[in-house]
Amino acid sequence: MRIDAIREFSSRSTGTDAEDQRKITNQLARQIQIEPDPLVREIIIETIANFRTPLAQQVLQAGLHDEESAVRIASCHGLGIQGDPGAVINLEKTLRGENDQDVRLAAAEALGSIKTPDSIQALSFALEDRDPALQFVAVESLKSISGQDFGGDVRAWQQYANGEAPAIQERPVSLAEKIRKVTPF
Questions:
Q1: Is residue 47 part of a domain?
Q2: H-type alpha helices, 2-161
Q3: Terminal C-alpha separation, the chain
Q4: What domain range includes position 13?
Q5: Is residue 17 domain-resident?
Q6: 179: which of 27, 29, 70, 140 is 20 to 30 A away, CA to CA?
Q7: Looking at the domain assignment, is residue 11 inside a domain?
Q8: What is the pLDDT of residues 35-45, one digit of tens each?
Q9: In terms of Cα–Cα distance, which of 116, 113, 140 is closest to 126?
Q10: Is residue 124 part of a domain?
């Protein structure tokens, strides 16, 4: 019942910073501070992401430090939904310092929703990571930010993130691609 009551607040979001919106975010902020259940904290984060108040932004950023990874992931997603350029620094810190790989992936994905040069710089760190999943999410986020498409060429994306002109290499056409062009299937 408690979760349904919290989710009901989402329908009352107007996307503006108005007095009634601040009252709701104040109530949610007080609740998350005393909430012992990580599932309920996660739902509060998901709900507060729909509100465009300064306190909502603060709660989302504070959620990046929650002990439960699901709450940190929800905070990353919420910051991406908000799209506030001020969140880039916290998402970058999460990307660089977080131990949980799923949280790092969520931070990289959220950065793709914040179309700023700072986001590009933050994602350049993820391109250098040895984890192909993190590199993939960083590439997808960079595609979203830039409108460019260098395919999955991580080296080209690193050059782009560093402000260089990417040296795109033509890849050889595989036999399977040649056959696909010839057959009607």
A1: yes
A2: 2-8, 19-34, 38-48, 54-63, 69-82, 88-97, 101-111, 117-127, 132-146, 154-161
A3: 52
A4: 1-82
A5: yes
A6: 140
A7: yes
A8: 999 999 999 99
A9: 140
A10: no
